[in-house]
Specification:
With about 500 residues, the chain is mainly beta. Helices cover about 5% and strands about 45% of the residues.
Length: about 500
């Protein structure tokens, strides 16, 4: 006779782990064939349950807010409570957050029928996943340390599935959707001295802004920061996110960042980045593919920065009934030197007659500043960037125009509902070939809303209109030309996100 005794359950910590102990008496003998004879006793071995395993669905936890690679332990000099657990001395917090997003789009652009014999449909759909493994720890002496990373999904070009065995092409396409590393950094420090972050991670602009002054938070797809909807609209109509906050061209570069302790709401930071790329890519002979390139005979390599430094200050706190975030960051960097001739450089980019570009670039030299004020659920924000910068963190061609750009907006959050509107305007050099001739003017507007249907489950929708213009530049071919000097697009997206 078999008896199964189950002990009661106990709630352990804040994660609601079920603990179960099982006791079993030895089984009674049964009759059966053993070794070719009938009637011998059989005593089955006692059944032992496998140890509790949190990776096989045995972990029961309350739903919580989504946490990415940056959290309250590693993105500020003085740790603060937040959605991620804060370790106590001698403990470690391990986390594996993630999210899956599915979206349906309707998008239109002025180049949808510009290629003879081809056209694109306005309707499309996408889905993707992101994972955020990491750990935060505190030594017995109060030293804070940890690591975090972000894993994303690639997307390849669509291809015909024809041939001798026709198919939809979906199976082959799925093999292009590989996973890759988007962030990977370590940090250490103390609440009294601040922290140092090192590796592939956010710089001062992203850390100080957090998407608030750049109005990226009313829907989960980053609004005007290279959102999925902007990609789906297509037609080269999306303005580059020159504001850098939350841009891959800002946080996907190797760097050291120091974040000071908090002083009555104020903190400051310093940043150094030798170059944008991971030096483990390797380099035998000097070439454009070298991460630590210093001089190049390829004209456009001069857009790459070298030895970037940045410093900034931020205030984040209450001013009467208003929650105020205000920051300023100054950035300076050198660039890869061009060793070729001016004629070869102009020929390489197809510069038209009258272009002043000689193959040289100016050093990066720009300032970023932002303000956001929140009262009774209403947030008004704005961000301004100005100086020698072109596009998303590239140097500008010598003789070209400096950039001046702003983004502003307003959002309202009440309970599970958030609605907002954001507008950006960018005045910059744009095409290198057009230096001394024309410069680029771009603008876009986003109206969106999100609704938290349940913990970890969000519905959202956005509408975007975007416009780009530069005289003498063909946005269809990305070369100098008389056609397609102005492009525009618009679209809507309806999506859902599940996060944990």
């Amino acid at each position: 006779m078999r008896r199964l005794l189950c002990t009661g359950t106990a709630l352990l910590g804040s994660v609601g782990v079920w603990a179960m102990a099982v006791a079993q008496t030895p089984p009674a003998p049964v009759q059966g064939p053993v070794g070719g004879y009938v009637g011998a006793d059989i005593r089955p071995a006692p059944v032992e349950l496998a140890p509790w395993n949190p990776m096989t669905g045995q972990l029961i936890a309350k739903p919580g807010a989504f946490v990415g690679a940056n959290n309250a332990n590693n993105q500020v000099g003085t740790a603060r409570t937040g959605t991620s657990g804060v370790p106590t001395p001698g403990t470690m917090v391990i986390h594996l957050n993630g999210r899956v997003m599915v979206q349906y789009y309707q998008g239109w652009n002025s180049l949808m029928n510009a290629a003879p014999g081809f056209s694109t449909n306005s309707g499309s759909m996408s889905s993707w996943l992101r994972l955020y493994p990491g750990m935060d720890a505190m030594a017995a002496n109060g030293l804070r340390y940890g690591a975090a990373m972000e894993i994303r999904q690639n997307f390849g070009p669509a291809a015909n599935g024809g041939g001798a065995n026709p198919n939809s092409g979906g199976g082959a396409y799925s093999t292009t959707q590989t996973l890759y590393n988007r962030r990977s950094f370590v940090y250490l420090g103390t609440n009294e001295l601040g922290i140092i972050r090192a590796g592939l991670g956010d710089g001062l602009i992203s850390l100080f802004d957090g998407g608030r002054t750049t109005m990226q938070t009313f829907t989960p797809n980053s609004v005007l920061n290279g959102s999925d909807l902007q990609t789906a609209i297509g037609g080269n109509t999306s303005p580059p996110w020159i504001f850098m906050s939350g841009s891959a061209d800002e946080y996907d570069t190797q760097k050291f960042v120091y974040l000071s302790p908090n002083f009555s709401g104020f903190d400051f930071g310093l940043q150094y980045s030798p170059q944008a790329f991971n030096s483990l890519s390797g380099c035998t002979l000097p070439a454009s593919t070298c991460a630590n390139l210093q001089t190049s005979g390829t004209a456009l390599d001069g857009q790459r920065y070298t030895n970037m430094i940045a410093g900034g200050v931020r205030y984040n706190g209450a001013v009467g009934p208003i929650n105020l975030l205000a920051y300023g960051v100054y950035t300076y960097a050198g660039h890869v030197n061009y060793s070729g001739t001016a004629a070869a450089a102009r020929a390489a980019v197809g510069a038209p007659a009258g272009s002043s570009w000689s193959g040289s670039f100016d050093n990066l030299n720009y300032g970023s500043m932002g303000v956001a004020m929140t009262y009774a659920g209403v947030t008004v924000g704005g961000n301004f960037i100005t100086g020698a910068i072109n596009g998303r963190g590239a140097t500008k061609p010598s003789g070209g125009a400096n950039a001046n750009a702003f983004v502003t907006g307003i959002q309202y959050a009440k309970g599970p509902l958030t609605v907002g509107i954001a507008y950006e305007y960018i005045d910059s050099q744009g095409a290198v070939a057009m230096a001394g001739l024309t410069q680029r003017k771009e603008y876009a507007i986003d109206i969106g809303a999100s609704y938290t249907l349940a913990p970890g489950l969000m519905l959202f929708a956005d509408y975007i209109y975007q416009n780009r213009k530069q005289g003498g530049f063909d946005f269809g071919t990305n070369t100098a030309g008389a056609a397609n000097n102005q492009v525009q697009g618009q679209g809507v997206v309806f999506g859902t996100q599940v996060s944990w």
